[in-house]
Amino acid sequence: MMDIIEFFFKIYFEILMSIYRTFNPAPLKSLHGEVAMVVGAGRGVGKELAIHLSKLGASVACVDIDIINCNLTAQHAYRASGVAKPYCCNITDKEDVARIALDIQDELGSVTMLFHCCGVPSPRLLLDDQPDPEEIIKVTVLSHFWLSEYILPQMKQAGKGHIVLLSSVAGLSVAATGVPTSTAQFAVQGFAESLRTKLRYTQSNNIAVTLVHIYPFIIGVEAASDIRFRIPSFFGTIPAVEAAKKIVDGVRRNYMEFSIPAYLLFMGHVLRILPKKASFMLRELLDTGVDFV
Question: What does pTM read for this prediction?
Fold first, then answer.
């Protein structure tokens, strides 16, 4: 009985703290001295994340399979008054990930922050024919296992760490097109929850895990003309640089899960609570040409 009473007291306290933090967010932690590995730094939000992290004093390892764009990102990040180096890596190859992890540790130090920006579907990907399901699973899901296998020991050695996973809001529900893409985004959410639980049970409380849900058009300034915006003021797009800043701010406040825009996470939870037919009607009302939740 005492355990039950204590449980409800703690739940009540956490709800109050959550409401309080809504109006009074936690302070931003410093990133000086952090070694940040940004996977998918060649373009888009990954590129902007690398540059923004560098401005905040982190040493940035820019990782991408496209070495040309990766080099350009590293140059921009370096000029942003930070330390940045490019690394070419195929994150679907376990041995390649192991090699890069060692190279980064030797040249920049143990990785303390990991940003996985690969596998978030673009608007065009959701509209066009889907690529090979096996390739989607490798890039979006399996790569997380290889990265965590070689980066987590470095974080434990450093005594701190923060793993940030980017996912489409298709991970909150389903997309109207692309079964492989939606499946992969759901898997990312499951991986984040499982990893967080594992770290808690292994007493690795100094390593945080953050899951960020991104609306597919949030980083696409090139929204195609065939994408319908039934409520343009409700959706729309923002540039990658602004999305990156919001992501870093959420990470610096140690949020476990959030979305860009913020209301989409709440909407995803509402859709799960509603009866199925009611959730379908809400999706139709908010239809944008891509069924994003």
Answer: 0.84
